Amino acid sequence: MSIDKETARRVAKLARIAVPEDRLDPLATEFNAILGFIEQLQEVDVTGVEPMVSVTPQRLKRRADVVTDGGQPQAVLANAPDAREGFFAVPKVVE
């Protein structure tokens, strides 16, 4: 697949990126280089290779899924514009 100037213009428009007219040819060249690299990657045989999340084999630390108040309610409410009885106070919006 080859990207031409018109396709580069359309991709830039879809991405909502303002690209000057004189930069469309270099942008198309960059797109073609990226697509060429992707084609190279697709040639790699990955049969029998397990998907991985990280290059180092480690498990994420986990904590118990327990509901708490965070242990610092005063610090949480310190910047609230209006707090009453340990809760955020908000204006009434429903009649």
From TrEMBL:
UniProt xrefs under Pfam families: GatC (PF02686)
Entry keyword annotation includes Protein biosynthesis: yes
UniProtKB keywords: ATP-binding, Ligase, Nucleotide-binding, Protein biosynthesis, Transferase
Catalytic reaction(s) noted: L-glutamyl-tRNA(Gln) + L-glutamine + ATP + H2O = L-glutaminyl-tRNA(Gln) + L-glutamate + ADP + phosphate + H(+); L-aspartyl-tRNA(Asn) + L-glutamine + ATP + H2O = L-asparaginyl-tRNA(Asn) + L-glutamate + ADP + phosphate + 2 H(+)
InterPro entries tied to this protein: Asp/Glu-ADT_sf_sub_c, GatC
Keyword ATP-binding found: yes
BP GO annotations: glutaminyl-tRNAGln biosynthesis via transamidation; regulation of translational fidelity; translation
EC identifiers of the protein: 6.3.5.-
Gene3D superfamilies assigned: Glu-tRNAGln amidotransferase C subunit, N-terminal domain
Quaternary assembly: Heterotrimer of A, B and C subunits.
Family: Belongs to the GatC family.
Name of this chain's protein: Aspartyl/glutamyl-tRNA(Asn/Gln) amidotransferase subunit C
UniProt organism field: Jannaschia donghaensis
Protein encoded by which gene: gatC
